[in-house]
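Private note to self, pasted from the team thread so I don't lose it. Backbone tokens:
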């Protein structure tokens, strides 16, 4: 459903979220755990979201490669952000940014920068947020990201700029 431009949080249909969680049931694949973590996060069920994200990280460590671990770790950082656990979220995102940059995974780097910017935004560190959002949009453009991804960065830029101009 998009993003709330004031909070930079996802807008979702909570009924649809609940229905999808029911469909996923007890599925334990990496994809299902990641989806559950995201759905629980946007539904505000943050303890359960953190459990699902941690389970996804554990599974990815056992079954995947370094690249497969990026998404579960980003989800965990997002849940930590929503729980206002900013320092652990920043630590995870800084590590993800460094790893993605080292391996030249531009879209992962952009995604992690975007989310680190959201942590800064939540902390009212709008200049730091703006810097990350601008870098994310440039990386996304350079990597040929979808218009939806680029637009989410542009929305974030406008939100941070609006706070700086007050």
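Design output:
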């Amino acid at each position: 459903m998009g993003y709330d431009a004031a909070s930079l949080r996802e807008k979702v249909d909570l009924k649809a979220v609940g229905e999808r969680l029911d469909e996923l049931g007890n599925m334990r694949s990496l994809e299902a755990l990641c989806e559950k973590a995201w759905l629980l996060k946007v539904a505000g069920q943050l303890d359960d979201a953190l459990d699902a994200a941690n389970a996804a990280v554990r599974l990815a460590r056992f079954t995947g490669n370094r690249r497969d671990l990026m998404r579960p770790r980003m989800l965990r950082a997002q849940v930590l952000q929503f729980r206002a656990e900013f320092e652990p979220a920043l630590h995870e995102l800084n590590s993800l940014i460094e790893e993605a940059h080292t391996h030249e995974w531009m879209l992962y780097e952009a995604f992690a920068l975007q989310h680190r910017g959201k942590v800064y935004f939540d902390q009212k560190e709008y200049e730091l947020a703006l810097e990350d959002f601008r870098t994310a949009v440039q990386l996304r453009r350079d990597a040929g990201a979808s218009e939806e991804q680029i637009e989410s960065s542009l929305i974030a830029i406008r939100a941070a700029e609006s706070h700086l101009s007050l």
